[in-house]
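Human: Note token order:
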Amino acid sequence: MAKTTSEPEGKICIAQIGAAHGVRGEVRIKLFSDDPDALTQYGPLQTAEGDRRFQILSARLSKTVFVCRIKGLNDRNEAEALNGVRLYVDREQLPELEEEEYYHSDLIGLEARLEDGTVLGSIVAIHDFGAGDLLDIVPSRGKGLYVPFTLAAVPHVSLDEGYVTVIPPEGLLDEADESERRKEGEAADFSAQPELLEGLKKD
């Protein structure tokens, strides 16, 4: 399956604005890079359409996000309105990646397959909750999976062919299957009460 993504051509998403911080217009920003300087070294960051630009004046680390001041943003209400905005740079501005390194934007939309070719689903996001990158894989049905983005769990990435090979940690697929079975088993049986029917997500 070819990769499908809504990311703009020629741009890389390196960060996403989150919730407002305080009352003076600061915002929390999630950085999709190992280099903290990426927030400021490429000049103003832009939206996917390129119609808005944001110059980061300062950034300080707070757990897994950066608390940032953006030029011209001095009001909490304005800051709250930016929640969820993804920030991009032109791909040509970024340095060449080392082997086994990938931009998050290039991974999103790739198909996830087992070693025998069985399709698990598609990568919809990459998360880092503090213990390293996790691929968020959503199947056509059933519960989604978080797979560590490590060489052991994801030994092969083919951007050209649009897929990654996944070796899930032991028990992960069993847990997902059991969770789905429990979910299906919890469906209510209204057959004995018909009156109730009437109102009726590398290191």
